[in-house]
Amino acid sequence: MSDTVTPLLSATALSKEFRTGRKEVFTAVEGVSFDVHRRQTLGIVGESGSGKSTTARMIARLIDPTSGSIEFQGEEITQRSGAALRDFRSGVQVVFQDPYSSLNPRHTVEEVVSAPLRYQKRNVAGGYRRMVKAAMERVGLNPDHSGRYPRQFSGGQAQRIGIARALIVEPKLVICDEAVSALDVSVQAQVLELLVDLQRERDISYVFIAHDLAVVRQIAHKVAVMQKGRIVEQGPRDEIFDDPQHEYTKTLLSAVPSIDPRWDAGRRT
């Protein structure tokens, strides 16, 4: 089967429960299923508390699902641990929302970006410095600044450090968990352009988590809409945006700003 037919990642009936007391259980995600194909971006949207980030952390195996299945490149990964889990993480990396809190402030950029290489115990001829500088240069950072600390960079630059860290192990899938929501609009556009360019160059797939539908429309090929831990609608981007079927999706879209007042009036109607 071709790459466009066989998903890179498949999530089937994923659920996650958290125990909040001796008998109380909170269901954060329930019965979520979706596919992510090679060289494509799946946008997962919804308001705060809809289960987007919990879903992202499950497919990255940062937390374990309560039930359900995750397949990556055709192999079940929900039960992996130890070296097998480390191998999986060489193919899947995460870019987090707040670049400063996700980058160790006590480590230099060189140490931060090379961390996945050390975690995966990769031996690199001549050390990691050459690879770190190449990754920094590709994301638009000055490689001569690899000895600086994250707080010495702007928010947009710090997010580029996070992207460089994700790229250093050449992953197949990058999960962007609200990766541009903390940035101002002009910097958002630059980071989105970088992500799109990297996808074309390296055949990367993305799971792009966001509450901002205007941002998702710029980058996603497919969209899944989450509400209260469930996917209520999913499909190709243009179908979701141009002809939404679920009332919740329509409500989300009605809140997206438009520069065309006629379109805004039509949506409100």
From TrEMBL:
SMART domains: AAA. Its EC number is 3.6.3.24. Belongs to the ABC transporter superfamily. The keyword Transport applies. It comes from Brevibacterium linens. Keywords: ATP-binding, Hydrolase, Nucleotide-binding, Transport. One of its GO terms (biological process) is transmembrane transport. GO terms for molecular function: ATP binding; ATP hydrolysis activity. This is Nickel-transporting ATPase. Residues 9-253 form the ABC transporter domain. It comes from the Bacteria.
